[in-house]
Specification:
The chain contains four helices and five strands; from the N terminus they run βαβαββαβα. By secondary structure, the chain is of the alpha/beta class. Helix 1 packs across helix 4.
Length: 139
């Protein structure tokens, strides 16, 4: 089973991207993915990761104005805004539980978390990201 971890703050405009994608996946395909939504990553997540074959992190990051980016977790974008990074949570899972699954990071790049700058484009990105994740799971 794949664990999708959507994290961010829905009160901060585009920072809620990860949670919106995760909620959409939970609604569209609860039999395909397990979903966790959090305001920020926490050490306790390492246990849930260890129980999954694959983990996909979904977040927003302040940076360029482009909307969606997927990268292997071994080489993530360096503008993540949370104190505990996906790499650190995965490292905990590997160290504590000998987890060796696959991991990815989908990060939507945003210029600002003050609002949703372009609602139509933002929601299209939420849909497209959820669609990409589901396509990978059903392949």
């Amino acid at each position: 089973m794949t664990l999708v971890v959507g994290y961010g703050n829905t009160l901060r405009g585009e920072d809620g991207f990860g949670i919106e994608v995760a909620n959409l996946l939970q609604h569209k395909a609860p039999e395909v993915v397990e979903v966790a939504t959090l305001h920020q990553l926490i050490p306790e997540l390492a246990l849930r990761i260890s129980e999954a074959g694959r983990v996909i992190f979904v977040d927003a990051a302040c940076g360029a104005p482009e909307y969606a980016l997927a990268v292997p977790l071994e080489n993530p974008h360096d503008t993540l805004s949370h104190h505990l990074t996906p790499q650190e949570v995965v490292a905990m899972s590997r160290l504590l539980y000998d987890w060796r699954g696959e991991c990815l990071l989908f990060s939507m790049m945003s210029l600002s978390f003050d609002c949703i700058a372009d609602p139509e484009r933002y929601h299209a990105c939420v849909e497209a990201t959820a669609g990409q994740i589901l396509a990978g799971e059903r392949a």
